[in-house]
């Protein structure tokens, strides 16, 4: 007849046989996903650098926090953009 210890041992072995490959598969999928994200990032960055070198134009970026607060920040931002466009 089956003892509790035998049933627990059997369940533990079955769980271990199912769980170990799943953990390995999850780790493998995570590693592939990380490598894929890094490869796409590298590809996008190299395309951007090649495009910049080909165009030879200067890129300008604005970081203007709180420009949507309604306190006049929008006007300052658009005046700065207009000043750059007219030069």
From TrEMBL:
Keywords: Endoplasmic reticulum, Membrane, Transferase, Transmembrane, Transmembrane helix. GO terms for molecular function: GDP-Man:Man(3)GlcNAc(2)-PP-Dol alpha-1,2-mannosyltransferase activity. Residues 59-86 form the ALG11 mannosyltransferase N-terminal domain. One of its GO terms (cellular component) is endoplasmic reticulum membrane. The chain crosses the membrane at residues 18-44. InterPro entries: ALG11, ALG11_N. One of its GO terms (biological process) is protein N-linked glycosylation. It holds the Pfam family ALG11_N. Its main location: endoplasmic reticulum. The keyword Transmembrane helix applies. Belongs to the glycosyltransferase group 1 family. Glycosyltransferase 4 subfamily. This is ALG11 mannosyltransferase N-terminal domain-containing protein. It comes from Acanthochromis polyacanthus. The lineage of its organism: Eukaryota, Metazoa, Chordata, Craniata, Vertebrata.
